[in-house]
């Protein structure tokens, strides 16, 4: 998804949809969780393998292009920066 040393660490609190949504017949809204720890990617072309959702409130959510799981982070349209959640990806030494 992303090579080592291609991003910088940042902290900010952002509500991101859960990877698995709970069924709630009373609500049309998405279930979210607050994430705080991210890899900041300045250029979306830096990714090795990432997919983007449709735009929702000025953001596109990031998904793994191989398995289509996600969202693993988000792309902020106003700044063109991508934020990859440390909590939602597996880190391996290459």
Automatic annotation (TrEMBL):
Transmembrane segments: none annotated. One of its GO terms (molecular function) is guanyl-nucleotide exchange factor activity. The keyword Cytoplasm does not apply. The keyword Electron transport does not apply. InterPro entries: Mss4, Mss4-like_sf, Mss4/transl-control_tumour. Keywords: Guanine-nucleotide releasing factor, Protein transport, Transport. GO terms for cellular component: cytosol; membrane. One of its GO terms (biological process) is small GTPase-mediated signal transduction. This is Guanine nucleotide exchange factor MSS4 homolog. It comes from Drosophila navojoa (Fruit fly).
